[in-house]
């Protein structure tokens, strides 16, 4: 059974952490799953977030999974998150997309929804 985790909660939400926990559990059990960051969930891909030393870094935890981390490009740009290519295209002075994350269109979400057995939104 394949699972799509649709993460729409901001990184400071407990729901975002639950999404990570489920992803870690699915990976440890070699279950097929995909993730997609959308709406406020895209904020996890902002490399300019400051995290206090005494707190876990959600971005780093997702990167440790070493999986594909697609982020909705429109939602990201609307929240000030961009990669090099879009920074040039939209004349934004710097890129801040965290390493391992990839800006993609909603077509990727549509494809993921079509090819999954269950969708869980956080």
TrEMBL record:
GO terms for cellular component: sulfurtransferase complex. It is found in: Cytoplasm. Keywords: Cytoplasm, Transferase. GO terms for biological process: tRNA wobble position uridine thiolation. GO terms for molecular function: sulfur carrier activity; sulfurtransferase activity. Its main location: cytoplasm. Pfam families: DsrE. Belongs to the DsrE/TusD family. NCBIfam families: PRK00207.1, sulf_tusD_dsrE. This is Sulfurtransferase complex subunit TusD.
């Amino acid at each position: 059974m394949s699972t799509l985790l649709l993460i729409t909660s901001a990184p400071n939400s407990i729901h975002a952490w639950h999404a990570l926990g489920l992803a870690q559990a699915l990976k440890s059990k070699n279950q097929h799953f995909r993730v997609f960051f959308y709406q406020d969930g895209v904020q996890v891909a902002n490399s300019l977030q400051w995290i206090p030393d005494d707190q876990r870094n959600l971005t780093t935890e997702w990167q440790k999974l070493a999986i594909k981390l697609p982020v909705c490009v429109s939602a990201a740009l609307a929240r000030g998150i961009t990669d090099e290519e879009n920074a040039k295209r939209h004349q934004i002075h710097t890129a801040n997309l965290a390493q391992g994350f990839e800006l993609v269109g909603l077509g990727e979400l549509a494809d993921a929804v079509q090819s999954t057995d269950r969708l869980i939104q956080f």
